Structure formats: structure tokens, C-alpha cells
Amino acid sequence: MKNLKLPLTIDPRRSAQRRLLCEGYFELIGLDRLLAISEKASEHVNVKMNFDVDEQGLIVISGNASTKVSLTCQRCNELYEEKLEVEFCFSPVKNEEGAQHLPSDYDAVELDENGEVNLRDLVEDELILAVPLIPKHKLEDCSADADTTWGKLPEVVEKPNPFDMLKQLK
Ligand SMILES: [Zn+2]
Fold first, then answer.
1. What is the value of pTM for the model shown?
2. Ligand 1 center–CA 114 separation, angstroms
3. What are the C-alpha distances in Å from 138 to residues 67, 74, 82, 83, 156?
4. Parallel, antiparallel, or unpaired: how do β-strands 40-41 and 59-72 relate?
5. How many Å is the maximal CA-CA distance in the chain?
6. N or C, which end of the chain has less CB nearby within 10 Å?
7. 135 CA to middle of ligand 1, Å?
8. What are the residue boundaries of the structural domains of the chain, listed by start?
9. Is residue 137 exposed (0-12), middle (13-18) or buried (19+ Cβ within 10 Å)?
10. Which pLDDT tens digit goes with each residue over 41-64?
């Protein structure tokens, strides 16, 4: 299963019993919350997800996701591209009580009323958490970092004063 558009929701129990491995993508259109905090974004989020049952009988959804978004560098105010990469390990629960009983290695993801997990929301949540609080270029790429530009005023081009020029004509 490669480069497939992934389903938005999935039944984790059935997928875990089949030891399903999903490899594919979500279109970024639809990930409104992530789009709202980025200036521009690539079209896809690449996702790899593995459904399994652990030795305690818990369903495990593990995998990773990556995408690129454009953010405004807080140092030089220019757009730059940030690669977001996340890894996750979830176990579906019915409610908050279930979440409290999970081993600490797992994050809880709540099942919806159909017993399914919203994969796209799950991935989007993780990606949003990966967006830096203060976005900035890598030091070597940031134009504000070089000593020569730091604190330098923009060059003022001196325009001849038109009144002075008139005076000269008289
Ligand atoms: Zn910068």
C-alpha cells in the first residue's frame, strides 16, 4: 500500500487484527487548522501507519508523518520552509477513563461513535504540536544573523531636492 490517499477514519480493531500497514498521504486541503498557522504548505502529508495488537491485547497505532509548511522567520521576517516530522504511538480508548489506564508509552486517541479513529485529525494534531513556537531559520540560512546586516539601516538614496535644483537654475 504505497502512495495511497489514506482514509479519513478507520476501524482500529479490525485493522490491528489484520496487522495493517498503511503508507500513503493526506491532502493538506482539509487540514484547516494546520493551514491556518502556515503561510504556505506543500500539498501532501506523507504518512506511515502500523496497526497492531500488543502483548497486553491493546490496539496500537504507531507510525510517522511528515510535511512541509512555510512559516515566517521571527528573526528576519522572511518566509522559510519548515519540515514537520512527527512520530506517534496511539492506543484507541472509549473515553477519558480508558485513557487513564493506558501504559505511559501510548497516547490515547478517542474512538468516535462508530468505533473508528479519525486518522486525519490525529495526524493533524501531531503536526500542529511540531510547529515551532517561535519559527525561525536555521542560523546559517537566516539573513538577519550575519553581522553585517544585523542592526544596519537600509541605505538611503539621496534624492536631489527639486527646490535646490530650481535655485540653481535662477
Ligand atoms: Zn530568518
1. 0.79
2. 46
3. 18, 11, 10, 12, 30
4. antiparallel
5. 98
6. C
7. 9
8. 4-153
9. buried
10. 778 999 999 999 999 999 999 999
